Amino acid sequence: MKKKLAILISGSGSNLQSFIDAISENSLQAEIALVLSNNADAYGLERAKLAGIKNLVISHTDYESRESFDEALAEEIKKHSIDFIILAGFMRILSPDFINQFKDKILNIHPSLLPKYPGLHTHRRAIENADEYHGTSIHLVNEELDGGPLIAQAHLKLNVQNDEAEVMKAVQKLEHQLYPAVVNLLVQDKIRIKADGIYYDNKKIDKPLLLGKEII
Question: Which of 119, 139, 157, 196 gives 20 to 30 Å between its CA and that of 148?
Fold first, then answer.
């Protein structure tokens, strides 16, 4: 039986589309059982509808607190026997209780080579600091913002001519390649999350897997 994914979005859903495409191309052996958004206007909901995927809106504005909103999210996710929760442009910080309910099952993608540049404006910061390399990271979600254990990264080489929009487009391309590939390794048990760390092909990794490289 294929592992079930819940994908949480807030906006355009370009990473969601990369999962839909990977499943269609049979490069991801999983099922998207549910797409959830906190934003009724998120275009990602249209992507889900076109693909025939169950999708729901749970608006954070309908709840008095982050905790009560997260409780509603958790209750919906539990109805679908989800194996992994994929944050794909979900613009909400999850509460500790939600994270603990789904410990080691929540993944996030972040547009920097973590631990560099948690938070916002990552491309601008990389350019301003004249970094040689920039990229994207996939990590487990814990209570620290963008601070969970790293699973994999993809990087590209910057040069002085790059502007922020160009870098953002190149990093998004890496994201769309990396995220489904890493989740496929997880659902096939080639990557395993254990109490003492992350394992790839039964070997504990001491640094994130590097699964892609491009030069812009």
Answer: 157
